[in-house]
Specification:
Length: about 230
């Protein structure tokens, strides 16, 4: 009898444990079911939040719901960028609004006298028409700051110097070439008043020719008006 009683006790304990596990499982399932709201309650909650935002003075986003495809986004960005940019050479209404840019060279090797103007007779570009290939002079169509570049190659006569002369500047830019078939170059930013001239002259050195295009060039462009 005592052994049988122990067996009955063990079976009862196992039955109690199974009952407790089932009760716990039922409780968890009940809590999950209770915590999961249906769609209608979610919609009601969203409407309630929107009404609260309106009552607090928060304005709805007018862009909400609009398509945001890649093309429309890129177009919008370009429009925003365009509002803050200006085209090179453009200015306020009523003022000069053209771009000034010239690039010149020599059609053939040529020798020039001391203090004489270098006449660059080949015009590769002359936007604004400010360079005169007959005189070798640039005439400013508008007052402003200009950037000029000169490059030379000599075919003979060492120690030659060429000077970039701005009519309105007390300073000049000189390019010195020490030996034949060598090159030299210089760049200057000058303030030039409207109608005033800029040119390149032979400043110093023995007789010698300048090499033709593309080794000898004179160019410039308008940085900004003043």
């Amino acid at each position: 009898m005592p052994a049988r009683g122990k067996g009955v006790g063990r079976r009862k304990a196992q039955s109690d444990r199974l009952t407790n596990r089932k009760s716990t499982k039922d409780a968890v399932e009940l809590s999950i079911t209770t915590a999961a709201p249906d769609k209608s309650s979610l919609h009601a909650e969203v409407k309630h939040m929107r009404r609260n935002r309106s009552s607090r003075g928060v304005k709805p986003d007018p862009e909400a719901g609009k398509p945001t495809d890649r093309k429309s986004l890129v177009s919008g960005r370009l429009m925003d960028i365009g509002k803050g940019c200006s085209i090179l050479g453009a200015s306020e209404a009523g003022q000069f609004s053209g771009t000034v840019h010239f690039v010149t060279s020599l059609t053939q090797d040529a020798a020039f006298t001391l203090k004489g103007t270098i006449v660059f007779d080949q015009v590769d570009e002359n936007i604004g028409g400010a360079y005169n290939p007959d005189t070798g002079e640039f005439t400013a169509p508008v007052s402003g700051f200009y950037l000029f570049t000169v490059q030379v190659m000599v075919t003979g006569g060492p120690g030659q110097e060429y000077e970039l002369k701005c009519e309105d500047s007390a300073y000049s830019t000189r390019v010195r070439v020490e030996s034949a078939w060598s090159t030299g170059s210089g760049t200057a930013v000058c303030h030039v008043r409207e109608g005033h001239k800029v040119k390149v002259i032979k400043y110093y050195g023995p007789a010698g020719s300048l090499r033709q295009s593309p080794w000898t060039r004179f160019s410039g462009f308008l940085l900004r008006e003043s």
